[in-house]
Amino acid sequence: MVNKHYPVGFKADAVALYRSRPGATIAQTADDLGVNRKTLRGWVRADDQRRGGLAGPASSAAKPHATGSVEEENAELRRRIRELEEERDILRKAARYFAGETRW
Question: What is the rounded distance in angstroms from the CA atom of residue 27 to the CA atom of residue 25?
Fold first, then answer.
């Protein structure tokens, strides 16, 4: 089995992608990125230790509104858009990385 060496930025992006997807599992995210599940799990654990024990995906997941005002809803929608754009960018980077890896 070949040991793959992933760039630090890719590792950070993979962990961010896992955390940004509410309800996502490490297995799903690893399969989406084409990395070994244990590898991604190790990256997530290392990031948890670095952060001081904050664990779990989507730590900024949507919470119910206390007042339900339009401004709060708009702010939450803007946050969600940023999360989705970040996720899209991470997937694009991963696709470029793996496309370059398959070229001889």
Answer: 5
